[in-house]
Amino acid sequence: MKNKTKGLLAAYGMVLPAFLVVMLTVAYPIVSAVIQSFQDEDTGAFTTANYTYFFTETAQRNNLLYTLFVVIVTVVIAIVLAYLLALYLRFVKSGISRAIGMLYLLPRFVPTMCAVYAMITIIRDSGLINRIGLLFGLDIKLGLMYHASGIIVMNMWFNIPFATMMIAAGLGAIPDSIIEASRDSGAGRWKTFTSMILPLSMKDVVVASTFVFMSNVGSFTTPYLMGGNSPKMLGIALYDQFNKYLSYNRSAALSVIMFLICSVSAAVYIYTNLKEKDWEK
Amino acid sequence: MEERKVKLELKDMAKKYDNGDGVEHINLKVYEGEIVTFLGPSGCGKSTILRTIGGFMDVTDGDILVDGQSIVNLPPEKRPTAMVFQSYNLWPHMTIYENLAFGLKLRKVPKKEIDAEIKKMLELVSMSGFEKKYPGQLSGGQQQRIAIARSLLLKPSLLLLDEPFSALDAKIRQQMREELKKIQSDLGITVIFVTHDQEEAMALSHRIVVMNKGKFDQVGTPGEIYDSPATLHVASFIGEMNFIRNGGSTIAVRPEDIVVNKGHGPMEAVVRTIMMLGHYVVLTVQRGNEIIKCYVDRELSDQLREGDLVNLTIGKHTVFSRAA
């Protein structure tokens, strides 16, 4: 009995430091931010005005919709391109595919700032593409800077490698014999893709989508350097509220809103992982 | 003997890998209703031949004919063949019914007919009532039965089996062999079977192709291959065999073809071990440097002790020159 108590104490003792760190650095700020978001800036009384501000003010509401637009377009394009790349890496056996397989993660190792500035020097209206065009007498102005399309293009840089990695792992787990048996049964390439490969890799697609979604809702560097003045992405809007307007209660409310947007995606992620399909039982 | 219909013909077929391995000059005729087994150690090229027939690999040379028609240029889905793989055969996200119906739906068979055929086929492989289960809920043996059923439903001209039972345990494997043989004779279908298990090959096949290092060592009935092996490799690969050196040649003789007598004689040996294996006894005797295995009956073994002197008489045997 005494030994058992000792064992329990030791176990709790080992968990305690990590638990306290999480409590102090994660749980406490969340709770205090939620409380603060419902407080009036001057009186500290309970109010929902901090929230209604972000949904009723035209500029703020536009920021919210703009962010969702950029993020969803990023998710869709990044996942489609990543899926195609992962398919290529899985099913084409050649020197080029092996080389791409080794190199495709490289962009993720470039620091965000460097990558964004590098991209700006290429795509801005006086950038590399414009100058090459001038050599041929063409004045190419892509108009990507300070526009949603520029942010989306930049997001591809970081999100395609990441999504490809997750989807490629899923496709790699599909045995060849499953595909061969399908062809053997009379299914052509397209039918084999829609009936075998796609359903068997759907889970990885959903998981990769949720990760891309979450990491882009709160993105800062790319929209800060490449985004326009209005509308802004929520990361920048939050920065303004906190650092320029010193409006801590509204900042707290916006943080909670962003957290809730992310948690939708987190819920999808957890649901996909927990829900065992019938065939996985 | 009446002329039998040729189902499959391999004509000087070759499949070379980039590293130089592979098979070449493969010539074989398989007749309708036959079970032909490719037997050999791993890496001998037996699966390569099967996969080229199924269309999962291109041939580098030669031709493959089914019912007299060349199939080498057809993709797997257009070939009149159906293949059962070693494992991971069934589509895990589909029920057994969906697995079985997949190929039939592609062929636009009416739903009623599909249901009836699946019912009949599940009966044939003794798996009735499993329609709604998923492959993951079945044992390995059950999964392979469904895999065979799925292939048979497509009414293939040729059924290809790539070591289908090697992932199963010994008892189930034996049972599956018997079932396959029964199904084959009921349906009269032509089967190409690949295995590295000589016992499986002997039990199942009408003819065996013994392969070694990308070449055919011998093609023959199980009896022919067992009784008169063409090469030392075949002799050592199939069944138990003693190799006795005799001058410049090697005598290959099966343990059951050696007669053992107690006492002196022209070919004397000393008993080393006596192992009772049920209705017969395995005796190993030492003669010079060589250890020879013999099967004897209980009556004789009861009289023998380790260290006793015995005389051997060699019965049916094959002689190979030492170089072989």
Automatic annotation (TrEMBL), chain A:
Annotated ABC transmembrane type-1 domain residues: 64-269
Compartmental location: Cell membrane
Biological processes, Gene Ontology terms: transmembrane transport
Pfam families: BPD_transp_1 (PF00528)
GO terms under cellular component: plasma membrane
Membrane-topology descriptor: Multi-pass membrane protein
InterPro entries in the record: MetI-like, MetI-like_sf
Highest taxon above the source species: Bacteria
Transmembrane annotation, as ranges: 7-31, 64-89, 101-124, 144-174, 205-226, 252-271
Assigned protein family: Belongs to the binding-protein-dependent transport system permease family. CysTW subfamily.
Protein name: ABC transporter permease subunit
Species per Swiss-Prot/TrEMBL record: Oliverpabstia intestinalis
TrEMBL record, chain B:
First and last residue of the signal peptide: none
Cellular component aspect of the GO annotation: ATP-binding cassette (ABC) transporter complex
Keywords: ATP-binding, Nucleotide-binding, Transport
Sample GO molecular function, one term: ATP hydrolysis activity
InterPro entries recorded: AAA+_ATPase, ABC_SmlMolc_Importer, ABC_transporter-like_ATP-bd, ABC_transporter-like_CS, Mo/tungstate-bd_C_term_dom, NA-bd_OB-fold, P-loop_NTPase, Transp-assoc_OB_typ2
EC number, UniProt record: 7.6.2.9
Domain ABC transporter residue range list: 8-238
Name this protein carries in UniProt: ABC-type quaternary amine transporter
Organism: Oliverpabstia intestinalis
